[in-house]
Every structure is written in C-alpha cells, then in structure tokens.
Amino acid sequence: MSEQVVFSQLSRKFIDENDATPAEAQQVVYYSLAIGHHLGVIDCLEAALTCPWDEYLAWIATLEAGSDARRKMEGVPKYGEIVIDFNHVQMLARAFDEARAAQTPQQQEWSKLMLSMLHDIHQESAIYLMARRLRD
Fold first, then answer.
1. Is 18 in a helix, a strand, or coil?
2. What percent of the residues of the chain are helix, what percent strand, and what percent coil, each to the nearest 5?
3. Which Pfam families has this protein been placed in (predicted)?
C-alpha cells in the first residue's frame, strides 16, 4: 500500500445548471460564483503536486519547528487534508523560502512549485489549494 499527498489547485468554477441564464440575471450568476458551493457552484481542481507520504513528512520537517507554517502543513497527517487559501500565502511563502537552504534538491523543487502556486493565489485570491493524503 503506497501513500502520497496530492496538492490540487482550483482551475475553474462553473454553475451546475440545465437552463441558459437570462441576460438580466447574469450579474446574479457572477455573485453566485463569488459566494460558493451552497448555490450549486462547482470547483474544478487539478492535481498540481504529488509527494510520496514519507517524503512529504521529511519536506515539511524542514519548516521551522513550532511555526504556524509547519502546524498548517502538519494538518495533512493530522486531519487527512488541508486547504491553503489567500490567508496562508504570506506565512507559507516565507517559511518555504527560508527552508530551501536546508532542503534536498527534490524538496527544493517542491518548494519552488509551492511558491509558484502561492504566487498564483496572491495574484488571484479566488484560487486555493487542497492538500489531501491518499492511500492506494
């Protein structure tokens, strides 16, 4: 049985509907996209980064012990998944950037990709990441 952590990134949103939306209601559609799932808005996530379980644990161990960033990333082992959104960008970007000097080349590549995804969230606050532990 292999385990891994998959980071999926929001790629697009759409409204689950069968009928065309009248032009006069289009503004309501845009508002619905902004406020979320309970209105039938579906988020489409795409896998952006996959780490083997043991290597994920070693990677997050390079983050400063006791830091908010490390506690956030330890949510995957603790809860099975975490969401990373605009509120976490500065904290995580700083932590992963600072940790790169002590990381293996593979971990540095993951950190580089993480920093890129965090930059995407910074540029467009509607984007978020879902990190989930998967077992085969």
1. coil
2. 50, 25, 20
3. HycH
Interval 51-77: pLDDT, tens = 999 999 999 999 999 999 999 999 999
**DSSP letter, residue 127:** -
Tell how far CA 49 is from the center of its chain: 10
Please say whether the beta carbons of 7 and 47 come within 8 A. Answer: yes
Kindly give the residue spans of alpha helices, DSSP state H, lying in 61-102.
68-73, 75-79, 89-99
Distances (CA, A) of 68 to 9, 10, 91: 21, 23, 7
Give the pLDDT of residue 127.
85
Q: How many residues are given for the chain?
A: 136
Model pLDDT, residue 23: 62
Map tokens 């983050």 to a residue.
63
What token pair was written down for 82?
């975490």
Instruction: Please name the residues in contact with 12: beta carbons below 8 A apart, sequence gap of 6 or more.
Output: 44
